[in-house]
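Trying the structure run again after the queue cleared.
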Amino acid sequence: AAAQTPVPASSADWAIFVVDEITVQLDEPAAGEPDPYIIPEGVGLFVHAARAPDGSPVLAYYDRVNGDLKLARFDPATGMFAAPIVLDGADADVGWYPSVAVDADGVAHVSYVSATTDDLMYVTDAPDAVPELVDSGYRIDGQTESGLPQPVFHFVGDDSAIVLTNAGPVIAYQDATTHELLLAQKNAAGNWEHQTVAGDEDPFAGGYGFYASGRFDGTQVVLSNWVIDQPNYDSWVEIHRVTVVVQ
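Done. Tokens:
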């Protein structure tokens, strides 16, 4: 929906566009294991919007039926959205919690979660672009009884926010296992690395990383996120600044 007046007051002040549609089969639930993901069937879940250099909207969203990450662009010439494209999803169920940003050349950059592997992913709509693994959630959590490193996998990538900087894209997101706010950036070798921004305090100071959002001010990435302190029945929005280093 796009407002047609500066202060819309009724439905007549809005233009409604159909971006995508899909037929949903209303079958009776099958016997056996229930669906672990209690989210509705359909298309357009977790939608996130950005603007192209000409001001036209660009939408990234999850196609629940096909398990795809999709991108749709508005075409000013036709006054309609062009047919959406699939950015990822041919071999896995991907596209949760997408965040999209468009650079000066019009290329869309998208961060998102793979529902199949609970990884944080990154892809663009540039020609021949391939999805990249940002964070697999692999961590070393102490030692085994034999004194060996104990590997574990965390659930990572929820509520991601991609920000374009002079050092390339950076991604803020949550480690949902430890409730940390993380920030990922490519190193000089082109590999993704992440750092903890907040949430690893001892003693516990709150669960960080919910509904992360970010902007680049020319030097620093300014991040906001919702923090929950359940033991003290408290919650708040907290702002963090992280200096971006060109690798």
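DSSP finds no helices and 20 strands in the chain. Worth checking whether this holds up in the mutant runs.
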